[in-house]
Amino acid sequence: MVKIKLEILKKLPEKSSNLPTLLFVHGASHGMWCWQENFIPYFSSKNFPVYALDLRGHGKSEGFNDIDSFSLSQYADDVMEVMNQLDENVILIGHSMGGAVVQKILSLHPKNVKAAVLLSSVPHSGMFKDLIKLLFTQFKNVRQAKKSFSCENVRFPFEVYVDDNIPSEKLKLYSSLIQLESKKASLEIFTSIVPKNLNVHIPMLIVGSKYDKIVSAKSVALTAKFYKTKPIILNNLSHDMMLDSNWKIVADIIYDFCAALPRKKYVCEYAKTSV
């Protein structure tokens, strides 16, 4: 089996820290670029060691020519590859399809995870119901999105992911960064992600929003119920919470959750400049 080279971002705190390490996992058709504008600067400024990756076939990682064959389990392998380079358990933060990848890891490698954060995540049972709703409420945008991958002059309708306050120049930038997603993984997210009898024994933070046009607040609540925790349902954030004009609301919630977890028994390495 040919090993795929992954693009990994590593940003260490500017001073010594015993805070837990965060590893960000992006969603479908995205890359780690979605974390770089707001979340990575925010959490690194709070003295957290921060990592992110481009899943295989995404961003600067290898494999785009074979992307349609990649599964959620292979994406989970990519995240595990990064985790195995660290000498500690990490907090996984997954968005949308990245949340499904995190759930796969909780099912397959639970001992490697300190805690998990799911943001606007694909539900544990899959998002078939959300897809039906999306087709009815966002049919024009769904059709335009599909066309944008085959026609250069058709822009991906990124406004379905973010709030109305995002400037047009940023919408154009984000639209240009969106890419094709694996057909195999795209089909997998519409069915159950984890076994129905899965028991998870780590702290979990599950966040959704009533304004999310992709994953409903109801689906987020059902996922939280499955993992025996209470969801945090926000009123005014979009699906791409990390790029929303109110992104700091959810960033502060994640910070409070992560900062309350047990600290490391040792002080991590640090760097005066990012790596």
From TrEMBL:
Lineage: Bacteria, Bacillati, Bacillota, Clostridia, Eubacteriales
Name assigned to this protein: 2-succinyl-6-hydroxy-2, 4-cyclohexadiene-1-carboxylate synthase
Family matches, as Pfam families: Hydrolase_4
Class in the EC hierarchy, top level: lyase
GO MF assignments: 2-succinyl-6-hydroxy-2,4-cyclohexadiene-1-carboxylate synthase activity
Alphabetized UniProt keyword annotations: Lyase
Organism superkingdom: Bacteria
EC number(s) stated in the UniProt entry for this protein: 4.2.99.20
InterPro entries reported for this sequence: AB_hydrolase_1, AB_hydrolase_fold, Carboxylesterase_BioH, Hydrolase_4
Gene: menH_3
